[in-house]
Amino acid sequence: MPQRLLEALDLVVARRASGALPGDRRAAGLGVGTELAQLRPYQVGDDVRQIDPAATARTGQPHVRLHVPERTLTTWILLDVSPSMAFGTADRLKIDVADGATLALGRAAIRRAGRVALLSFGCGEPRLSRPRASRPGFVALRRRLGEGVAPDGAGDPRALANALVRVGQVARQPGLVVVISDFRDQEDWTAAMGSVAVRHSVLAIEVRDPREAEVPAMGHLALIDPETGERIEIDTSRRSVRARFAAIEAEARARVASDLRRLRVNHVVLSTRGDWLRELGSGLR
């Protein structure tokens, strides 16, 4: 991964997530920080270390200073490891693009004293690696990515919805949630994503393969659905079959884009063909 592209992506992600660089990232509530949130009269139970001498001398009554807390940004990456992610007919597999995007965003997350967590879904119950900072966080990402994808036929149509519900339960402080998936054969995920988007900045990265958009004229083919394991036979030499296939696929991709746009979620499309890292940077501008 070119270092200059990663540095540019780092700045873009910081701006998208919080509107500023570290040190300006605010968390909800009051706490230890450098920016004044409130100056008020002392009340029983207040920390005496927060008493402001100048205000106390000026008013003749003890006053305390309360500050806006400065906390690190936590990036939650939801990675799709369902069987369909093992598909790829161009330069690489879809899971290769997803892994690369995970590493690039994970590196950007920890560069500025942030933390990164990974939640993989699509094979049984969602698996969560807790938020970590610095090198341990990046090492944990690489270790989890080495586990690969689920076997054919092990897909779960509610995997994405369950993963979003899970991250909504554990991500208490506002942060950045990145969903990396092909958004295929997933049901009832919009409500869960909308709930997450209320508290967090959400980025949806959709990974596609060019062959998924259209099927070539290759005669009779036996195809297997990797998510369900179902086997079907089609005659791709028929133009009507190819046109119907392309229309169904276009409708499905347009529906995903429409749902994300309605939820006001940033949507970036990456392909297994070409330079996916440049596409990611261009999509986040």
Report what the structure shows.
The chain is α/β, with parallel strands linked by helices and 285 residues long. The chain has eight helices and ten strands. Helix 1 crosses helix 3 (94-111), helix 3 runs antiparallel to helix 4 and helix 5 (159-170) runs parallel beside helix 6 (190-199). The longest helix is centred in the C-terminal third of the chain and has 24 residues, at 239-262. Residues 19-33 have low confidence and may be disordered.
Keyword list:
alpha/beta; Rossmann fold; 2 domains; two-stranded antiparallel sheet; 8 helices; 10 strands; elongated
How many structural units, i.e. domains? 2
- Helical coverage, percent range: 25-40%
- Trace the largest sheet across and list its strands: 5-4-3-6-7-10
Note the main sheet.
Answer: 6 strands, mixed
Q: What overall form do the CA principal axes indicate?
A: elongated
SSE order, one letter for each helix or strand: HEHEEHEEHHEHEEEHEH
Low-confidence parts: 19-33
What would you report as the Rg, rounded to the nearest angstrom? 23 Å
The CATH topology annotation of the largest domain reads as Rossmann fold
The amount of beta strand, in percent, is: 15-25%
User: CATH class of the largest domain, anyone?
Assistant: Alpha Beta
Number of helices: 8
What is the SS-derived class?
Answer: alpha/beta
CATH architecture of the largest domain: 3-Layer(aba) Sandwich
Write down the overall mean pLDDT.
84
Query: CATH homologous superfamily of the largest domain, by name?
Result: von Willebrand factor, type A domain
Gap between N and C termini: 19 Å
